[in-house]
Write a structure and sequence with these properties.
By secondary structure, this protein is an alpha/beta fold. The protein is built from twelve helices and 15 strands. It has one domain: Rossmann fold, CATH 3.40.50. Helix 1 packs across helix 12 and helix 3 crosses helix 4. The longest helix has 20 residues. The two termini are 22 Å apart.
């Protein structure tokens, strides 16, 4: 069997294991609670997705739950900022959603994702097509959380009883901007970009809600919100210290660990489709008056500060503890290279890029202290309702976060004491997309229907007859091996 045939065979094995391990699927979508859920991604237009790329067990945590807390309400309620000068892109009031849990000294502050705009053309298009990411005019009065934002212990065993803060993304600047509508000169500008200032004002407004008594504050985010965590966590930690809070500040970065694009594009790129994220950030930094963490800025010469928007370049300069969650084959990382699995066959070059992406991401995460990186094709994880289903080597992300929490508590008391049998550095060792048996199912990009094993292989551009595979025979044989434990 030639090399492509061996690749197809190994991939077939991974997908067969995955499909057999998932078990039967429900006939329809999981039932949702009433209200407006937040945090859970839904299929939509490419510009609706959070960020074009380049850019388990509850036992461990039982002793960590804050005693004498009351069960929080299910809803997070809207609060507009007291400082009316800090606004969304269109000048409407920025704000946050809060669900208080009286007696809890744990706070989770979540930054929403949603990519960015970087010039008049892209911002006008964004305002027309996705106004909720630039204006608060139609925000609901309350929202419900999912995944790690849920108030249900079954869905969120470790953080359900924390004070939850959800900050809607309405600044289009990857949470980095400090520019008001008055602009830097005498003439007013059309849009404000105040993402970093919004985070600062939310923290200040939470003082009256009790955050000064916090013991743990976790700044979390997905996609562009995850990059916002990396860019702002030092400032959040310093601000809380100035306010007299003794809380340990930590970060949770979900699907925001992007690699720089190697794809060359034209210098003049009027829209997101023709502009790499690297070029978009370069242009946006000037428009947004974006902040760069000082320690990272010092590592690069003038004009290359944009590199600090990429996790592998920024991570080593940050002081607060960070947990990185990253699919090894992130769909948004692939999209910028014009790779859409489930839509059309792949070229040999694209398939090589996918394999290289997995290897490069693994390498970039090797020295990250706390990480959960499944070998799957997807984007964002912590706000999915089924976020506890995904595992690496038998450990779910929820359990890994609990283990990390326990290690941080033990370290603060006894030095760096290891937690035996409780891992929180988890990177899949298998090499192929979807080789993890708990991976989310792939969906056809057009129909949003789940793809069969045959369709997955075809979507990867593999000619099964050419590589010498008898699909029905091989699939049946491999499925038998899986079901019998062989």
């Amino acid at each position: 069997m030639n090399s492509l045939g061996r690749a197809a065979f190994l991939l077939l094995l991974g997908v067969a294991v995955s499909q057999n391990s998932r078990g039967p699927k429900p006939s329809g979508k999981a039932p949702r609670k009433t209200g407006t859920p937040v945090g859970e991604a839904a299929p939509g237009r490419p510009e609706d997705d959070p960020l074009p790329a380049q850019w388990g067990s509850t036992q461990v945590g039982k002793d960590l739950k804050t005693p004498q807390t009351q069960k929080p309400s299910e809803d997070m309620n809207l609060h507009f900022l007291k400082n009316a000068q800090v606004t969304c892109n269109d000048g409407t009031a920025a704000g946050f959603y809060l669900r208080e849990c009286k007696g809890s000294k744990r706070w989770l502050i979540f930054l929403e994702g949603g990519w960015c705009c970087y010039n008049k053309e892209t911002c006008d298009s964004r305002y027309k097509n996705i106004p909720r990411l630039m204006s608060s005019s139609e925000w609901p009065q309350s929202r419900k959380g999912s995944g790690i934002l849920s108030s249900e212990a079954d869905e969120n065993p470790h953080w359900w009883n924390a004070n939850m803060v959800f900050i809607p993304y309405c600044s289009s600047d990857v949470w980095s901007g400090t520019s008001s509508k008055t602009g830097q000169g005498k003439e007013p500008v059309e849009y404000a970009f105040m993402g970093s200032l919004i985070i600062r004002e939310v923290i200040k407004d939470l003082v009256s809600k009790g955050i000064k008594q916090a013991k743990v504050v976790m700044l979390a985010g997905t996609s562009a919100g995850a990059t916002g965590v990396l860019l702002n966590i030092e400032k959040v930690s310093s601000l809380l210290a100035q306010l007299g809070t003794e809380a340990q500040v930590r970060g949770l970065v979900d699907s925001g660990w992007f690699l720089e694009s190697k794809q060359a594009r034209a210098q003049e790129c009027p829209d997101n489709a023709s502009c790499t994220p690297t070029d978009a950030i370069k242009k946006g930094l000037r428009l947004w008056n974006g902040i760069i963490p000082e320690k990272c800025r010092q590592q690069f010469k003038k004009g290359e500060e944009w590199r600090c928007f990429f996790g592998p370049k920024l991570y080593s300069s940050l002081t607060p503890p960070l947990f990185v969650v990253q699919w090894l084959f992130d769909e948004e990382q692939l999209r910028v290279e014009d790779i859409f699995l489930g839509g059309r066959p792949l070229s040999e070059h694209q398939w090589a890029y996918i394999q290289g992406l997995g290897r490069e991401l693994k390498s970039s995460l090797r020295d990250v202290t706390a990480v959960f990186a499944p070998s799957c094709l997807s984007h964002t994880l912590i706000t999915k309702r089924n976020w506890m289903d995904f595992q690496i080597k038998g450990t779910s992300l929820s359990r890994a976060l609990q283990c990390w929490d326990k290690s941080l508590q033990d370290a603060s008391r006894n030095g760096k004491a290891p937690v035996k049998g409780c891992p929180y550095h988890l990177i899949d060792s298998c090499q192929w997309p979807q080789c993890n048996p708990t991976c989310p199912a792939l969906l056809d990009q057009t129909t949003q229907q789940e793809l069969s094993l045959l369709q997955v292989l075809v979507s990867l551009g593999l000619d099964l007859q050419q590589v010498g595979l008898d699909l029905p025979g091989e699939a049946s044989h491999l499925a038998g091996m899986v079901s019998s434990g062989g």
